[in-house]
Amino acid sequence: TENKSVFTKGGFYPRFDLKASPANGNRSLPIFQLRVKLTEPLSTNLQNSVTERRSASCQSISVSVKILGMADKVRYIGIDLGGTNIKAALVNTETGEIAAVQSAPTNSRDGHDAVIATMAKLVDRISAESGFTRDEIGGIGVGLPGSIDIAKGTSVFLTNFPGHWIDVPVRDQLSRWTGLPASLINDARAMTLGEWKFGAGRGYDIACLTLGTGIGGGLVINGRLHLGPTGSAGELGHLSVDINGPQCGCGNRGCIESFASGPAISAMAMKAVVQGRETRIAEMAGGDLNRITP
Description:
The protein has helices at about 110-130, 170-180, 185-200, 255-260, 260-275, 280-285; strands spanning about 15, 30-35, 50-55, 60-65, 75-80, 85-90, 100-105, 140-145, 145-150, 155, 180-185, 205-210, 215-220, 225. It has about 290 residues and is α+β, with helices and mostly antiparallel strands. The model is unreliable at about 1-70 (pLDDT under 50).
């Protein structure tokens, strides 16, 4: 499909594709591929930029879209929002070269406005450290640890953050404060994309898992990052494996994350020590429960 600068509004769910094409000089550029049901009215700005695909089960339309006009540049700022720290880097998306790295405490209990403000400050610091001006930076990509609405640029539910960041306009707020176009993606899917593009997954269809404060995952299928209709394809942490299990931060019971994440394992270790079970954990921690950490 020829890449065109097309912008859409509404409930379209994109998936990322870094494949080269003659239309962009065979450079690897981040583009959206959107799949929308034909029952949805097509906006006029989609005309002449669609390729129909028919299958036995449904009819769909695929559209390749440059992200917010950012595809003419190769340097982008990537931001990883973590529960403890926010990390940012300026990356050449063609070579993988990292020109600058900055980090700051998340301080999530200060609220989402304060956290987004910290992200904006990191963008300023990245620009200053690297020597690249705003005009030389294509935009910002943010990996969020939870469910997001990619089309709207909002967080839907961040499991391990105070208040859960329900319907927070992260993309628009960050873009307004930095003067750069921004785009959101789940952090585990971002990691999967990076591993496929520049890491051990190059040239392969892959499944990646993230293990830490939470548990996440992502899939690359047929050379494309697969997001699914809600952007959650590959998500592992919130699959319930025991309906009577411990309550997870998402509100469900028995999620894999509630058993196998770092904090969950630490909690089980502390419980074993307190209950006097036969274990070397107490000895290794010197009898101090505070030393039992993820």
